[in-house]
Design brief:
The structure is a single chain. The protein is of the alpha/beta class. It folds into two domains: 28-67 and 321-403, no CATH class; 74-316, no CATH class. Helices cover 41% and strands 20% of the residues. Strands 3, 4, 5, 6, 7, 12 and 13 form a seven-stranded mixed beta sheet that branches. Helix 1 runs antiparallel to helix 12 (379-403) and helix 11 (352-372) runs antiparallel to helix 12 (379-403). This is CHASE2 domain-containing protein. The chain crosses the membrane at residues 39-59, 324-344, 351-369, 375-395.
């Protein structure tokens, strides 16, 4: 009678009697599952710490930037930029120009049938010639669809903030006012926008939102996309507050949107069909006239940034970041994946388990972004999964060494 030898046991395996024969047991014993549970709970705690501390934010930003460069789109022709460019400076003269010049431009846009005009041009101090302010106020009144900017400025260096509004005569004639606050991250890149902001309370819509809301009397009751911050309810009346933060899907680098020279529009050198029924944004593109914003794609002037916000609003392409609870909940669920997959045929203890788990996390983040315009930053979850995997490997090696 020939004796059949049993296969060698792997680390963590034991034997059990089944039908009178010894059968190797897999490490999915009560003790093994207890260890997995403890690892998962430790990972959950570490995950919360990483999210709250923001340590992994730079990695998340890098992932978003990388994706944004390959997520461009072709903008439609609904948004047109009228650029205060070098050509306009050469023909009209040094900026700032008399406001009577802006009055002439607005009248031209009125005649050409522009759908709405957002002027990213400051008019918060009176002109030396009061007649210029009256001219631009009258032109704005005749148009009826002009939005001007609001922004926060310090009264003096290090002093109290105040809202810089257009001068009274002009402000009384605008269709709306919109804040032009720029949402810069810690690395100075601009990945998103605040749809609402204001002193003490975020009651001013962004310039692009105010423009898009023209004619919609119930627009203020509409639920806005974006990450809502309830903390502004108890804010100081002297603090600039922001709300409804959204991430942008940039159409492309600077120059992606249709652009017309200010002086060409002013002097009627542009076909009417390029302006009729278009959203028009007026702003500086000439070097030295305004801030150049660093975006995930390329540097661009503020007016191009506003065009991206406006187009994204119009087409419903704004990305909403998940709040803490949703971030945390999804990550907690995904942390369990490698511990559940461990020991399955073909996976075992090798690096394939780590690759599958990380790929699943990245796929979840990408799917939410592409399909639902939701941003789930995956870096904290990825970091914990790697640490979880390393800890499990060390435990198994220790267990194997003890058995030997």
């Amino acid at each position: 009678m020939q004796l059949r030898s049993s296969p060698p046991l792997r680390a963590g395996e034991g034997v059990a009697l089944r039908g009178g024969h010894e059968v190797p047991t897999h490490p999915t014993t009560t003790l093994a599952w207890l260890v997995r549970g403890m690892l998962w709970m430790a990972g959950v705690g570490l995950l919360a710490l990483l999210i709250v501390s923001g340590i992994t934010v730079p990695w998340d930003n890098a992932l978003y930037d990388l994706h944004a460069r390959y997520w461009r789109y072709t903008p439609n022709d609904h948004v047109v930029i009228i650029a205060i460019d070098p050509k306009s400076l050469d023909e009209i003269g040094r900026f700032p120009w008399p406001r009577s010049v802006h009055a002439q431009l607005i009248d031209r846009l009125t005649a050409d049938g522009a759908r709405g005009v957002g002027m990213d041009v400051t008019m918060s101090t009176p002109s030396n010639d009061p007649g210029n302010d009256k001219q631009v106020a009258a032109a704005i009144h005749r148009n009826g669809r002009v939005v001007l900017p609001v922004f926060a400025e310090a009264v003096a260096l290090g002093g109290q903030l105040q809202e810089a509004l257009p001068v009274s005569d002009i402000a009384q004639n605008v269709a709306a006012l919109g804040q032009v606050d720029v949402a810069k991250d810690n690395d100075e890149r601009v990945r998103g926008a605040y749809l609402k902001a204001g002193l003490g309370s975020p009651y001013w819509p962004s310039l692009a939102l105010a423009l898009l809301q023209l004619g919609h009397h119930d627009a203020s009751d509409t639920t806005l996309p974006g990450l809502h911050d309830p903390a502004h309810n108890d804010a100081s009346p002297y603090l600039w507050m922001r709300d409804d933060y959204v991430l942008l899907r940039y159409a492309g680098p600077d120059g992606t949107f249709g652009r017309l020279s200010y002086v060409d529009v002013l002097n009627d050198r542009v076909p009417v069909n390029l302006l009729k029924d278009r959203w028009v944004l007026v702003g500086a593109t000439a070097e030295g006239l305004g801030d150049i914003l660093q975006t995930p794609d390329s540097p661009m002037p503020g007016v191009e940034y506003q065009a991206n916000v406006l187009q994204s609003l119009e087409r419903g392409m704004l990305v909403t970041p998940l709040d803490f609870l949703r971030q945390f909940g999804l990550a907690v669920a995904l942390l369990a994946v490698p511990l559940l997959l461990y020991g399955l045929p073909g996976i075992g203890r090798n690096w394939l388990l780590l690759v599958i788990s990380m790929a699943l996390v990245l796929t979840a983040s990408l799917s939410l972004l592409r399909s639902y315009y939701l941003w789930w930053p995956p870096a904290s979850c990825l970091a914990v999964i790697v640490m979880e995997f390393v800890a499990w490997q060390l435990l198994m090696r220790h267990r194997s060494a003890v058995r030997e």
